[in-house]
Amino acid sequence: MNNRARTSPGDLLFRGGTGVVAGLLVAIVAGIGVVLYRESTRSIHAFGFRFWRTDNWDPVAGDFGALPFIWGTLYSSLLALLIAGPIAIGIAIFLSELCPARLRGPLIFLTELLAALPSIVYGLWGIFVLVPLVRTVESSLPDTVRALPFFTGPPIGIGMLSAALILAIMVVPFTSSVAREVLKAVPAAQREAAYALGATRWEATRVAIHYGRVGILGAVMLGFGRALGETMAVTMVIGNTPAISWSVMAPQYTMSAVIANEFAEAVTPLHLDALVEIGLVLFVLTLGINLASRGLIWNMTREKAFGSRAAAVAKAS
Question: How far apart are CA 64 and CA 52, in angstroms?
Fold first, then answer.
């Protein structure tokens, strides 16, 4: 008797169709990279790697360097990550481990609603609410604090601090949602084993966090990738000045913001290609970070599946 499962033509068609769709997604991502490279060849040939290392951006003279925009993008995203990471992880822990059942659904809905708000809404809120608050805080800083390199500059409210804060608010719901799913994926046996050894609820929660630490790190990195590509909200509050500064009070610039502001006004082919090359740099950075974070989450789920199979085998024996 043949125990092999029979494969019908419908099964083959379904498998082939889904494979084509999956391959199409990979082809689209690769096609985006190819198009960005082809459309920026004039800038690549003119500046080479100097484009990544110089800070001069002069469309009139035809001299372009993307370092201020790379710096502004990475700096604002890292600051947002430092602010949003602990908050997002705290929300995920509360919703998955400590929240009463009757409150969990509404709180999850409100958290995910924040992720669904358009970027322009955050930008308008930043201009009319956040920037005045930041300006007030910056003006109230004592002179000893404003003498530090991180707080030098006029207290105008528009600058790196406002951009980092609004990015943090936008990243929190996304990161907390993924981290919450990671904590939900932790096997119940981990918590039960901790309780069996006399652990408190907090100690059992720490066990779950330790088990899912790789996935939580992946969630934070996904939030970092989300922050890298944010455009409208950041453009409206960062100041749009191509300068490199450690000060969070200084107006600066990001890669997505310069593309949004200058793409329609680029009059020379070299200027246009330079903007497309900035898009290529942003594409490579975002793709690399998202691949790394997805790899961490995949590793977490694979370890969970392996642990479940091992527990099943041990129980059967």
Answer: 9
